[in-house]
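=== Structural record ===
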Amino acid sequence: MEHVECLIIGSGPAGYTAAIYAARADMKPVVYEGLQPGGQLTITTDVENYPGFPNGVMGPEMMNMFKEQAVRLGADVRFGLVTKVEFTNGGPQKVWVDEKHEITADVVIISTGASAKWLGLPSEQRLNGSGVSACAVCDGFFYRGQDVAIVGAGDTACEEASYLAKICNKVYMIVRRDEFRASKAMQHRVLNTPNIEVIFNSETEEIIGDKVVESARIINNKTGEKRELNITGFFVAIGHQPNTDIFKPFIEMDEQGYILTKPGTSYTNIEGVFCAGDAQDKTYRQAVTAAGSGCMAALDAERWLGSKQAGM
């Protein structure tokens, strides 16, 4: 068994930022990167909306910079997957890595993020980052004045379609059923936007393109009629799944599995366990907000630990 002062579960902007702040606070953080070291940004190409990079930066490159900075300041960044936890109020907290290595920690910061839900098409994964995206706000800029498609029927899909409509020439919105799941207000916004064409009762059969998206073939699930859309961008907005399953026996979450934190803080319902990034944020889901919450979590953890030690 190993004991550490600060354990950070997950990487990405939230985890690495928490590690930077925790290292500077001499908390000797240990970071387990998880299945996708660097998080969702490692499957993103150009990042142009993160401050400090006037010419943009590649997602994997930026995450490598985050990691290098954390390591330089003293964080112990390890490859491994936390497979089990046992949390108690005040701790010490117990975790198991790769089902065998047991660690106890004075404080734990959860930064496991969320994963976009995909359609499951081979072409979707092959062209991910080359025209296929799960974040219109992140990547819509690259398709200014072009024709794009978005899949989804909920509020998020409608919001992203409206966003794309402001910068793109034409937006095809592909809806699987004959109605939206979104609120009436969001439906009206989409239906009253001239350059959004909603295609109901339709599913994507294939995303076409060699190295980049060139078109998408859709099929009407009522009539079987097929149609090819000439597009350069394909956005999937069918939801995200927070990577929080292993924490469910201990941590309070909403019905979707997002961890609930006390408003304005990173505190969870368990004293000594904090949460940052997309594991608790279903509203913004941006690299810059994840990094900010990683900072909050490290500061909260430092202060909580300090007050606990002072009271001993």
Notes: The first helix runs from residue 12 to 24.
